[in-house]
From TrEMBL:
Part of the whole protein covered: 402 to 653 of 653
Name recorded for this polypeptide: Diguanylate cyclase
Residue intervals of the EAL domain: 1-252
Species of origin: Virgibacillus profundi
Amino acid sequence: FTMETELRKALSKEEFELHYQPQKNLKTGKIVGMEALLRWKHPVKGYIPPLDFISLAEKTGLIIEIGDWVLEEACRQNKYWQDQGFEPVIVSVNMSAKQFHQNGLVEKLEKVLMETGLDPEFLELEITESISMTNEKNILTTMQQLRNLGVFVSIDDFGTGYSSLKYLSLFPITKLKIDKMFMDDTQKQNPAIVKSIIHMSHSLDMKVIAEGVETMEQLNFLENEKCDEMQGFYFSKPLPPEQLSKLLVTLR
Ligand code: G
Ligand code: G
Ligand code: MN
Ligand code: NA
């Protein structure tokens, strides 16, 4: 089989799973969000990481169907956790440029939220800077519609792409996610970029989260700099939903 055929089969055979990585508020110490991360559980090859199939999914257009599944599953799971009585958190979903630009995205989201019963304020879409340069008008319109719906929009891997700073004030973006690469810099005593992104986010009325936090030193640094949230192995790796439920129980 070609990889494309296998991807199609994976969709129909329900071989995809979402794992969730918790995000922690640094002031309260509480979990305030979870990033949904796609996993392909191949019957023979085992877990295949998204980096090995997302770009093919984008090229073939299959990312739209896969993305539909991800959105619905993430909203369903988050609503389920709320129904279990856990403190409500935001689930964030990664979105490729192709998905963001698809016709009817906003209507699709409205439908998924209605069908799963998840309140829009508990859904965040993570987009990367790769979408920011083209179709300025369309992007602005879509983002405004998403915000009107109540859904949050964050910029993933911030600082690694080529977004002009102009877009940060032009678009209704609610959060910047500092790429892991800059957290590595804080270990090398070169924290200028992280500091600057935190301060800029707050000046522009956005929240800011640091990704790839692996050490206590990094965590202390972020607390000192008043970063809002953290995500990383130091707190938790991405977990299957059952394991995350157990973690939530211990924190209740
Ligand atoms: O755990 P990690 O290997 O999960 O994820 C690697 C990358 O794959 C992430 O940076 C993310 O951008 C991408 N990714 C993970 N899940 C999804 C998804 O559901 N949709 C899209 N478009 N990308 C995803
Ligand atoms: O969408 P995005 O590129 O932000 O996806 C996050 C990626 O980073 C996922 O592949 C996830 O497994 C990975 N990740 C999350 N926390 C850590 C961490 O603390 N260290 C490392 N090396 N990777 C992490
Ligand atoms: Mn992400
Ligand atoms: Na990232």
